[in-house]
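Researcher: Next sequence.
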Amino acid sequence: MDVEAVLQKVLQRIRPTDEERAFVEGLMRELEDIAEETIESLGLDVKPYFVGSLAKDTYLAGDHDVDLFLAFPLDTPLKELRERGLELGRAIAERLGSYEIAYAEHPYVRALYRGVKVDLVPCYDVGSWRDVKTAVDRSILHNRWVLENLRGRNDEVRLLKRFLKGINAYGSEIYIRGFSGYLAEILVIKYGSFLEVLKNSDFMLRQKIIDPGNWLKREHETAMKTVRREAEADRPLIVIDPVDPRRNVAANLGWERYGFFYFRARQFLENPAEEFFFPRGRKRGNYLSELRRKGSHLVTLVFGAPDLVDDILLPQLERSARGFERALSREGFNILGWNVGHEGGKAFIMLEVDRRERERVRIKPGPEFFTERGLDFYRKNERVWLGGKRLFAEKAVRESIIEVILELLGKNQVALGKSVRENIRDARIMLDYVPKELEDEAYLFLSREKWNLKG
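Model: Next structure:
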């Protein structure tokens, strides 16, 4: 199937239908009316703005999360913005249905209305990057810039977003380190289409700096400060935010996720197929067969997961896995790879190691050489020597990796994430065995299918 035929088939699945659009537009009108009425009833000087993919019409079919920003005047003190913003968010949410308080830079309200998640976020009513006071303020400027520059290429953004989701490279969260939706929009605006973005996957990596807002000419010093900082941090891409020269839109993009995109872009251009956008289920296999094939061993720690959002929990688990890697390496074990995750209230750390045990030599003092016991000691031991009139021998002791881990934890010699430290100390530690619910995860890890560039 040629590339255009593939893209048309994909678009039929990801482009919202007329009925869906009508639902979304009606939903946004209702939310805007409720927000304006609530603002007026509280006597506040606040403007409601829709931001995000719904407002920019770059959302995928079935993906209706709403971001409603409540913009306060610039002269509002930050403490007041947080307090009044939360009060306003709650008042709106009470008219919508169920809600909860969530936390980012400052608290915001997450509500559910007509089956759709609605985030009510207080911010400042900024007109330019110089007005920005909190991390969320730029969203209003992002929205404006995309709407002014997209020029009908909404479906091209949809294709890129779905492609990135299909290859597991979408999402700028710290535990994913992929492409954000805004970065996808910028790349389509910069290169013109989904296919051109893919064709430029190598060029943009070599060029390194993308400056759609022309900040290197307009605000050279500020933009260069961003470039130097991000180059020093070894980012794959530096995309100077078209609305703020101080920010790299691709700051959270990791090398691994860009690498996935780099290889998958080439593969798609050579052999276009719908599977890139909608991958088949992951391969299944037997993790014990993988261990036999490789001759390696698997240590798994399972423990209660603290009640933390993924943005905090997963980096803590990764830090702990790296701590085990360093500590066990010092003890003579070779760590071939690690994997972390959580599900159903349980967290896990998997470590693939080269062997189950290590040999350690201990010096064994014996009796005096001229005694009956001395002769017996002499016969039983391989390497024997004298120290004065006493015999000594070497004894090889095999130590299990589980014993070594317990000893390291007991002596506090593993650098662990502080939020999971106590949970890990109480972990159930297994060797070459995992609970049934982790069997697929263990196979995907050991076979590297989880990260396979050719799969």
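Model: The radius of gyration is 29 Å. The domain at 16-142 is CATH 3.30.460.10 (Beta Polymerase; domain 2).
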